[in-house]
Amino acid sequence: MSDQDSEPVLDVDFFRRWIGTAAASVEREADRLTELDSAIGDADHGSNLQRGFRAVTAELEKAAPETPGAVLILAGRQLISTVGGASGPLYGTLLRRTGKALGDSAEVTPARLAEALGEGVAAVAQLGGAKAGDKTMIDALEPAVAALGTSYAAAAAAAEEGAVATVPLQARKGRASYLGERSIGHQDPGATSSALLIAALAETAGEGSADAESAGA
Amino acid sequence: MSTETPVGIVLVSHSRAVAEAVAELAVGLAGGGTTAPVAAAGGTPDGGLGTSSELIAGAAAEVDRGAGVAVLVDLGSAVLTVKSLLAEGDELPEGARLLDAPFVEGAVAAVVSASAGADLDAVEAAAVEAYSYRKV
Protein backbone atom coordinates (compact mmCIF):
# COMPACT_ATOMS: atom_id res chain seq x y z
CA MET A 1 0.00 0.00 0.00
CA SER A 2 1.30 3.41 -0.81
CA ASP A 3 1.84 6.00 1.88
CA GLN A 4 0.74 8.86 -0.34
CA ASP A 5 -2.65 7.56 -1.40
CA SER A 6 -5.62 7.76 0.90
CA GLU A 7 -6.02 4.42 2.60
CA PRO A 8 -7.88 1.96 0.41
CA VAL A 9 -10.71 0.03 2.01
CA LEU A 10 -10.97 -3.73 1.82
CA ASP A 11 -14.42 -5.11 1.09
CA VAL A 12 -15.96 -8.57 1.22
CA ASP A 13 -14.77 -9.28 -2.32
CA PHE A 14 -11.15 -8.66 -1.28
CA PHE A 15 -11.46 -11.21 1.51
CA ARG A 16 -13.11 -13.79 -0.75
CA ARG A 17 -10.29 -13.34 -3.24
CA TRP A 18 -7.69 -13.65 -0.48
CA ILE A 19 -9.11 -16.94 0.74
CA GLY A 20 -9.56 -18.13 -2.86
CA THR A 21 -5.94 -17.29 -3.65
CA ALA A 22 -4.80 -19.07 -0.50
CA ALA A 23 -6.82 -22.14 -1.52
CA ALA A 24 -5.17 -22.10 -4.95
CA SER A 25 -1.71 -21.83 -3.34
CA VAL A 26 -2.48 -24.79 -1.10
CA GLU A 27 -3.58 -26.81 -4.17
CA ARG A 28 -0.36 -25.89 -5.97
CA GLU A 29 1.95 -26.51 -3.00
CA ALA A 30 0.16 -29.44 -1.33
CA ASP A 31 2.77 -32.00 -2.36
CA ARG A 32 5.62 -29.83 -1.12
CA LEU A 33 3.87 -29.25 2.23
CA THR A 34 3.28 -32.95 2.67
CA GLU A 35 6.89 -33.68 1.74
CA LEU A 36 8.14 -31.21 4.37
CA ASP A 37 5.76 -32.83 6.85
CA SER A 38 7.03 -36.32 6.05
CA ALA A 39 10.48 -35.26 7.27
CA ILE A 40 9.41 -34.15 10.75
CA GLY A 41 5.66 -34.77 11.02
CA ASP A 42 3.12 -37.32 9.91
CA ALA A 43 3.11 -36.55 6.20
CA ASP A 44 -0.38 -35.13 5.94
CA HIS A 45 -0.04 -31.34 6.13
CA GLY A 46 -0.57 -30.69 2.41
CA SER A 47 -3.43 -33.12 1.98
CA ASN A 48 -5.09 -31.96 5.21
CA LEU A 49 -4.99 -28.30 4.22
CA GLN A 50 -6.10 -29.19 0.70
CA ARG A 51 -9.17 -30.94 2.07
CA GLY A 52 -9.83 -28.01 4.39
CA PHE A 53 -9.50 -25.26 1.79
CA ARG A 54 -11.60 -27.21 -0.75
CA ALA A 55 -14.35 -27.31 1.86
CA VAL A 56 -13.86 -23.60 2.54
CA THR A 57 -14.13 -22.78 -1.18
CA ALA A 58 -17.31 -24.83 -1.56
CA GLU A 59 -18.87 -23.27 1.53
CA LEU A 60 -17.98 -19.72 0.45
CA GLU A 61 -19.81 -20.36 -2.81
CA LYS A 62 -22.84 -21.71 -1.03
CA ALA A 63 -23.16 -19.40 1.95
CA ALA A 64 -22.02 -16.16 0.30
CA PRO A 65 -21.04 -14.28 3.50
CA GLU A 66 -21.60 -10.53 3.24
CA THR A 67 -18.85 -8.99 5.38
CA PRO A 68 -15.06 -9.43 5.62
CA GLY A 69 -15.41 -10.77 9.15
CA ALA A 70 -18.04 -13.29 8.09
CA VAL A 71 -15.79 -14.61 5.29
CA LEU A 72 -12.97 -15.33 7.73
CA ILE A 73 -15.25 -16.77 10.42
CA LEU A 74 -16.81 -19.13 7.90
CA ALA A 75 -13.40 -20.16 6.55
CA GLY A 76 -12.05 -20.75 10.05
CA ARG A 77 -15.03 -22.81 11.05
CA GLN A 78 -14.73 -24.99 7.95
CA LEU A 79 -11.03 -25.57 8.57
CA ILE A 80 -11.68 -26.66 12.15
CA SER A 81 -14.33 -29.13 10.98
CA THR A 82 -12.63 -30.59 7.94
CA VAL A 83 -8.82 -30.59 8.26
CA GLY A 84 -8.55 -33.45 10.77
CA GLY A 85 -5.05 -32.54 11.99
CA ALA A 86 -3.63 -29.90 14.33
CA SER A 87 -3.47 -27.36 11.52
CA GLY A 88 -7.31 -27.35 11.45
CA PRO A 89 -7.84 -25.80 14.89
CA LEU A 90 -4.73 -23.64 14.48
CA TYR A 91 -5.64 -22.10 11.10
CA GLY A 92 -9.29 -22.17 12.10
CA THR A 93 -8.54 -20.14 15.22
CA LEU A 94 -6.35 -17.75 13.22
CA LEU A 95 -9.08 -16.94 10.69
CA ARG A 96 -12.00 -17.08 13.07
CA ARG A 97 -10.41 -14.82 15.67
CA THR A 98 -9.27 -12.40 12.98
CA GLY A 99 -12.79 -12.40 11.54
CA LYS A 100 -14.35 -11.78 14.94
CA ALA A 101 -11.96 -8.89 15.52
CA LEU A 102 -13.14 -7.32 12.25
CA GLY A 103 -16.72 -7.28 13.52
CA ASP A 104 -19.67 -6.57 11.24
CA SER A 105 -18.12 -3.82 9.11
CA ALA A 106 -18.80 -4.04 5.38
CA GLU A 107 -15.37 -2.54 4.68
CA VAL A 108 -12.19 -2.44 6.73
CA THR A 109 -8.97 -0.46 6.44
CA PRO A 110 -5.61 -2.21 6.03
CA ALA A 111 -4.65 -0.93 9.48
CA ARG A 112 -7.72 -2.59 10.95
CA LEU A 113 -6.88 -5.84 9.18
CA ALA A 114 -3.32 -5.70 10.52
CA GLU A 115 -4.62 -5.24 14.03
CA ALA A 116 -7.19 -8.04 13.69
CA LEU A 117 -4.62 -10.40 12.21
CA GLY A 118 -2.41 -9.61 15.20
CA GLU A 119 -5.22 -10.77 17.47
CA GLY A 120 -5.62 -13.92 15.38
CA VAL A 121 -1.92 -14.74 15.60
CA ALA A 122 -1.94 -14.15 19.37
CA ALA A 123 -4.87 -16.58 19.66
CA VAL A 124 -2.93 -19.21 17.70
CA ALA A 125 0.10 -18.76 19.96
CA GLN A 126 -2.11 -19.14 23.00
CA LEU A 127 -3.94 -22.20 21.66
CA GLY A 128 -0.76 -24.06 20.76
CA GLY A 129 1.34 -22.62 23.59
CA ALA A 130 4.00 -21.73 21.02
CA LYS A 131 6.32 -18.75 20.95
CA ALA A 132 8.79 -17.41 18.42
CA GLY A 133 11.64 -19.84 17.82
CA ASP A 134 9.65 -23.00 18.58
CA LYS A 135 9.64 -23.94 14.86
CA THR A 136 5.94 -23.39 14.25
CA MET A 137 3.49 -21.24 12.27
CA ILE A 138 4.25 -18.44 14.72
CA ASP A 139 7.75 -18.05 13.24
CA ALA A 140 6.21 -16.93 9.95
CA LEU A 141 3.09 -15.18 11.27
CA GLU A 142 4.58 -12.89 13.91
CA PRO A 143 7.13 -11.24 11.58
CA ALA A 144 4.41 -10.95 8.93
CA VAL A 145 2.07 -9.08 11.27
CA ALA A 146 4.93 -6.83 12.37
CA ALA A 147 5.69 -5.96 8.73
CA LEU A 148 2.06 -5.37 7.70
CA GLY A 149 2.39 -1.73 8.66
CA THR A 150 4.96 -1.32 5.89
CA SER A 151 3.28 -3.16 3.01
CA TYR A 152 1.67 -6.47 2.12
CA ALA A 153 4.73 -7.36 0.07
CA ALA A 154 6.94 -6.70 3.09
CA ALA A 155 4.69 -8.93 5.19
CA ALA A 156 4.89 -11.70 2.60
CA ALA A 157 8.67 -11.40 2.47
CA ALA A 158 8.90 -11.43 6.27
CA ALA A 159 6.70 -14.54 6.47
CA GLU A 160 8.77 -16.35 3.84
CA GLU A 161 11.99 -15.34 5.62
CA GLY A 162 10.53 -16.54 8.92
CA ALA A 163 9.58 -19.88 7.39
CA VAL A 164 13.05 -20.41 5.92
CA ALA A 165 14.58 -19.42 9.27
CA THR A 166 12.87 -22.43 10.91
CA VAL A 167 15.31 -24.78 9.14
CA PRO A 168 18.09 -24.68 11.78
CA LEU A 169 15.63 -24.62 14.69
CA GLN A 170 14.80 -27.55 16.94
CA ALA A 171 11.05 -28.17 17.19
CA ARG A 172 9.54 -27.56 20.61
CA LYS A 173 5.87 -28.10 19.81
CA GLY A 174 3.77 -30.83 18.28
CA ARG A 175 4.81 -34.20 16.95
CA ALA A 176 8.08 -32.84 15.53
CA SER A 177 9.24 -32.04 19.08
CA TYR A 178 9.46 -35.79 19.79
CA LEU A 179 12.28 -35.91 17.25
CA GLY A 180 14.47 -33.61 19.36
CA GLU A 181 17.66 -32.69 17.51
CA ARG A 182 16.60 -34.68 14.47
CA SER A 183 14.04 -31.98 13.73
CA ILE A 184 16.95 -29.61 12.97
CA GLY A 185 17.67 -29.08 9.27
CA HIS A 186 14.09 -29.24 8.04
CA GLN A 187 11.77 -26.34 7.24
CA ASP A 188 8.63 -26.34 9.35
CA PRO A 189 5.56 -27.24 7.27
CA GLY A 190 3.22 -25.01 9.31
CA ALA A 191 5.50 -21.98 8.96
CA THR A 192 5.68 -22.74 5.23
CA SER A 193 1.91 -22.85 4.76
CA SER A 194 1.57 -19.73 6.91
CA ALA A 195 3.89 -17.93 4.49
CA LEU A 196 1.60 -19.08 1.63
CA LEU A 197 -1.39 -17.50 3.37
CA ILE A 198 0.41 -14.16 3.74
CA ALA A 199 1.75 -14.35 0.16
CA ALA A 200 -1.86 -14.86 -0.96
CA LEU A 201 -2.81 -11.69 0.91
CA ALA A 202 -0.08 -9.73 -0.88
CA GLU A 203 -1.11 -11.19 -4.23
CA THR A 204 -4.73 -10.24 -3.60
CA ALA A 205 -3.66 -6.69 -2.81
CA GLY A 206 -1.74 -6.59 -6.08
CA GLU A 207 1.61 -6.79 -4.31
CA GLY A 208 2.77 -10.26 -5.29
CA SER A 209 5.72 -11.41 -3.24
CA ALA A 210 7.52 -12.05 -6.52
CA ASP A 211 7.81 -8.26 -6.81
CA ALA A 212 9.18 -8.05 -3.30
CA GLU A 213 11.77 -5.50 -4.42
CA SER A 214 9.00 -2.92 -4.03
CA ALA A 215 8.79 -3.88 -0.36
CA GLY A 216 10.03 -1.45 2.21
CA ALA A 217 11.92 1.16 0.17
CA MET B 1 -20.82 -33.15 45.31
CA SER B 2 -23.38 -35.51 43.84
CA THR B 3 -26.16 -34.79 41.41
CA GLU B 4 -29.27 -36.54 40.20
CA THR B 5 -28.37 -36.33 36.57
CA PRO B 6 -24.99 -37.75 35.60
CA VAL B 7 -22.11 -35.86 34.05
CA GLY B 8 -21.49 -37.03 30.48
CA ILE B 9 -18.04 -38.21 29.41
CA VAL B 10 -16.54 -37.77 25.93
CA LEU B 11 -13.33 -39.55 24.97
CA VAL B 12 -11.43 -38.00 22.06
CA SER B 13 -8.56 -39.88 20.44
CA HIS B 14 -6.79 -39.77 17.09
CA SER B 15 -7.91 -43.34 16.65
CA ARG B 16 -11.48 -44.61 16.65
CA ALA B 17 -10.27 -47.96 18.01
CA VAL B 18 -8.42 -46.31 20.90
CA ALA B 19 -11.38 -44.08 21.85
CA GLU B 20 -13.84 -46.98 21.73
CA ALA B 21 -11.56 -49.37 23.61
CA VAL B 22 -10.85 -46.84 26.37
CA ALA B 23 -14.59 -46.19 26.67
CA GLU B 24 -15.19 -49.94 26.99
CA LEU B 25 -12.40 -50.25 29.56
CA ALA B 26 -13.64 -47.35 31.66
CA VAL B 27 -17.26 -48.54 31.62
CA GLY B 28 -16.08 -52.09 32.45
CA LEU B 29 -14.04 -50.86 35.41
CA ALA B 30 -16.93 -48.72 36.64
CA GLY B 31 -18.57 -51.99 37.58
CA GLY B 32 -22.06 -53.27 36.99
CA GLY B 33 -25.20 -51.21 37.26
CA THR B 34 -25.94 -48.00 35.48
CA THR B 35 -22.96 -45.96 34.45
CA ALA B 36 -22.72 -42.33 33.42
CA PRO B 37 -23.19 -41.78 29.67
CA VAL B 38 -19.91 -42.22 27.78
CA ALA B 39 -19.28 -41.54 24.10
CA ALA B 40 -16.17 -42.13 22.02
CA ALA B 41 -15.11 -39.60 19.38
CA GLY B 42 -12.11 -41.18 17.74
CA GLY B 43 -10.45 -40.60 14.38
CA THR B 44 -11.91 -38.92 11.35
CA PRO B 45 -15.45 -39.58 10.05
CA ASP B 46 -14.04 -41.90 7.35
CA GLY B 47 -12.28 -44.01 9.98
CA GLY B 48 -8.77 -42.59 9.48
CA LEU B 49 -6.41 -41.24 12.11
CA GLY B 50 -7.12 -37.65 13.15
CA THR B 51 -9.64 -35.52 14.97
CA SER B 52 -13.13 -34.57 13.88
CA SER B 53 -14.95 -31.63 15.42
CA GLU B 54 -18.21 -33.08 14.11
CA LEU B 55 -17.70 -36.40 15.89
CA ILE B 56 -16.71 -34.53 19.06
CA ALA B 57 -19.76 -32.25 18.93
CA GLY B 58 -22.01 -35.24 18.20
CA ALA B 59 -20.58 -37.24 21.10
CA ALA B 60 -20.95 -34.30 23.48
CA ALA B 61 -24.57 -33.77 22.48
CA GLU B 62 -25.23 -37.48 22.90
CA VAL B 63 -24.00 -37.64 26.52
CA ASP B 64 -25.27 -34.24 27.68
CA ARG B 65 -27.91 -34.70 30.38
CA GLY B 66 -27.66 -31.12 31.65
CA ALA B 67 -25.08 -31.76 34.38
CA GLY B 68 -22.09 -30.89 32.24
CA VAL B 69 -19.86 -32.85 29.90
CA ALA B 70 -16.28 -33.84 30.73
CA VAL B 71 -14.04 -34.16 27.68
CA LEU B 72 -10.84 -36.20 27.81
CA VAL B 73 -8.34 -36.10 24.95
CA ASP B 74 -5.18 -37.90 23.92
CA LEU B 75 -2.76 -35.48 22.21
CA GLY B 76 -1.97 -32.97 19.48
CA SER B 77 -4.93 -32.11 17.31
CA ALA B 78 -7.35 -33.75 19.78
CA VAL B 79 -6.29 -31.23 22.43
CA LEU B 80 -6.24 -28.29 20.01
CA THR B 81 -9.58 -29.12 18.39
CA VAL B 82 -11.43 -29.33 21.69
CA LYS B 83 -9.74 -26.17 22.98
CA SER B 84 -10.65 -24.24 19.85
CA LEU B 85 -14.25 -25.49 19.97
CA LEU B 86 -14.50 -24.33 23.58
CA ALA B 87 -12.78 -21.00 22.97
CA GLU B 88 -14.38 -19.86 19.76
CA GLY B 89 -17.53 -21.69 18.97
CA ASP B 90 -20.94 -22.78 20.09
CA GLU B 91 -20.58 -26.36 18.87
CA LEU B 92 -20.26 -27.89 22.33
CA PRO B 93 -23.07 -27.95 24.90
CA GLU B 94 -23.19 -25.49 27.78
CA GLY B 95 -21.09 -26.87 30.64
CA ALA B 96 -18.66 -28.83 28.45
CA ARG B 97 -15.18 -28.83 29.95
CA LEU B 98 -11.79 -30.11 28.80
CA LEU B 99 -10.08 -32.04 31.59
CA ASP B 100 -6.32 -31.82 32.04
CA ALA B 101 -5.86 -35.53 32.69
CA PRO B 102 -4.07 -38.59 31.32
CA PHE B 103 -6.30 -40.23 28.72
CA VAL B 104 -6.69 -43.81 29.93
CA GLU B 105 -6.36 -43.31 33.68
CA GLY B 106 -8.33 -40.08 33.55
CA ALA B 107 -11.13 -41.74 31.59
CA VAL B 108 -11.44 -44.51 34.13
CA ALA B 109 -11.46 -42.03 37.04
CA ALA B 110 -14.01 -39.82 35.27
CA VAL B 111 -16.40 -42.62 34.37
CA VAL B 112 -16.17 -44.25 37.80
CA SER B 113 -16.77 -40.96 39.65
CA ALA B 114 -19.49 -39.74 37.29
CA SER B 115 -21.26 -43.10 37.59
CA ALA B 116 -21.16 -42.72 41.38
CA GLY B 117 -23.01 -39.42 41.02
CA ALA B 118 -20.13 -36.94 41.21
CA ASP B 119 -20.74 -33.49 39.77
CA LEU B 120 -18.52 -31.97 37.06
CA ASP B 121 -16.04 -30.41 39.53
CA ALA B 122 -15.64 -33.72 41.35
CA VAL B 123 -15.30 -35.66 38.09
CA GLU B 124 -12.60 -33.21 37.02
CA ALA B 125 -10.79 -33.54 40.33
CA ALA B 126 -10.81 -37.33 40.09
CA ALA B 127 -9.51 -37.33 36.53
CA VAL B 128 -6.79 -34.73 37.20
CA GLU B 129 -5.69 -36.65 40.27
CA ALA B 130 -4.85 -39.59 38.01
CA TYR B 131 -1.70 -37.66 37.04
CA SER B 132 -0.38 -37.96 40.57
CA TYR B 133 -0.43 -41.74 40.61
CA ARG B 134 3.22 -42.65 40.03
CA LYS B 135 4.04 -46.02 38.50
CA VAL B 136 7.66 -46.23 39.53
CATH architecture of chain A: Alpha Horseshoe
Q: Which two protein chains have the largest interface (Cβ within 8 Å of the partner's Cβ), and how many residues from each?
A: A-B, 23 and 17 residues
Count of beta strands of chain A: 2
- Chain-averaged pLDDT of chain B: 93
Low-confidence stretches of chain A: 211-217
Q: Please, how many domains of chain A? A: 1
Strand content of chain B: 5-15%
The radius of gyration computed from the alpha-carbon positions of chain A, rounded to a whole number of angstroms, is 16 Å
Walk me through the structure.
The complex is a heterodimer of chains A (217) and B (136). Chain A has a single domain (10-214), classed as Serine Threonine Protein Phosphatase 5, Tetratricopeptide repeat, CATH 1.25.40.340. Chain A is 63% helix and 2% strand. Chain A contains 8 helices and 2 strands; from the N terminus they run E-H-H-H-H-E-H-H-H-H. A two-stranded antiparallel ribbon of chain A has the order 1-2. In chain A, helix 2 (45-63) packs across helix 3 (68-82), helix 4 (87-102) packs antiparallel against helix 5 and helix 7 packs antiparallel against helix 8 (189-204). Chain B is α/β, with parallel strands linked by helices. The A-B interface holds A 44, 48, 76-77, 80-81, 84-90, 92-93, 96-97, 100, 123, 127-128, 174-175 and B 44, 48, 50-54, 76-77, 80-81, 83-85, 87-89.
Task: Please give a quick description of this structure.
Chain A has 217 residues and is mainly alpha-helical. Chain A contains 8 helices and 2 strands; from the N terminus they run E-H-H-H-H-E-H-H-H-H. Chain A starts with 9 loop residues before the first strand and ends in a 13-residue tail after the last helix.
Strand-helix topology:
The complex is a heterodimer of chains A (217) and B (136).
Chain A: E1 10-11, H1 12-40, H2 45-63, H3 68-82, H4 87-102, E2 107-108, H5 110-128, H6 138-147, H7 152-164, H8 189-204
Antiparallel strand pairs in A: 1-2
Helix pairs in contact in A: 1-2, 1-3, 1-8, 2-3, 3-4, 4-5, 5-6, 6-7, 6-8, 7-8
Chain B: E1 8-13, H1 16-29, E2 38-42, H2 53-63, E3 69-73, H3 77-88, E4 96-98, H4 103-115, H5 120-129
Parallel strand pairs in B: 1-2, 1-3, 3-4
